[in-house]
Amino acid sequence: MSYETGLETKFARAGEGLTLGADAAIEGYASLFGVADQGGDLVQKGAYAASLTALGAAGRKVKMLWQHDPAQPIGVWDEVREDDRGLWVKGRLLESTRLGREAAALVAAGAIDGLSIGYRTKRAAKDDKGRRLLQELELWEVSLVTFPMLPSARVAAKGETPGADDALRELAAALSGARLELARG
User: Which domains does the chain have, with CATH numbers?
Assistant: First the structure.
């Protein structure tokens, strides 16, 4: 979370629906409803509705970034919508840019298979297990990321090693903590 802006991020491995098609078209789920992530949060159905409506009314789009870095846009999301399963996104990596070409190559190779949302919590509650139920979110961006946090929304990868996700999540948590420390310093 960025202390200056209140921006939070929520990782989701892109799901079995993530595809990279012709002309670097990409689509998949950036968030799944009712599925606890590694932080114990659950996004509730309808959490994005007000934000998507407001963005549309203002003529703006959700940004597509590389690793949540606002200085590194890599494409455009042409369609962002909620369905019964979660937040579905469809867009294009801009291969006319260096970062867009690199992102397309990494996704095509399977080196990058995660999506992550950047958002501000507008309304949340706690359930009886102490988990945060995210009821309304202000969606800012959807990034392609290396280390996702929602393992149940994932792309099947050939030769996956059991237990590797746990080690990667620990590494991601350590890197996230280091990033926060650098931002404060």
Answer: 8-184 (3.20.16)
Residues 6+ apart with CB under 8 A from 116: 9, 10, 11, 12, 30, 68, 142, 143, 145, 148, 149
Identify which of 81, 82, 117, 89 has the alpha carbon closest to the alpha carbon of residue 7.
117
For every residue of 20-69, DSSP letters joined together read E-GGGEEEEEEEEBT---TTS-EEPTTTTHHHHHHHHHTT---EEEETTE
pLDDT tens sequence across 30-70: 999 998 887 889 999 999 999 999 999 999 999 999 999 99
Instruction: Determine the Cα–Cα distance for residues 157 and 49; give it in Å rounded to an integer.
Output: 32
* Residue of 149, 175, 168, 169 lying closest to 14 (CA atoms): 149
pTM for the predicted model, two decimal places: 0.74
Quote the CA–CA distance of 108 and 115 in Å, as a whole number: 14
- Predicted pLDDT at 48: 98
Given phi > 0 = left and psi -120 to 50 = alpha, else beta, which region is 31? beta
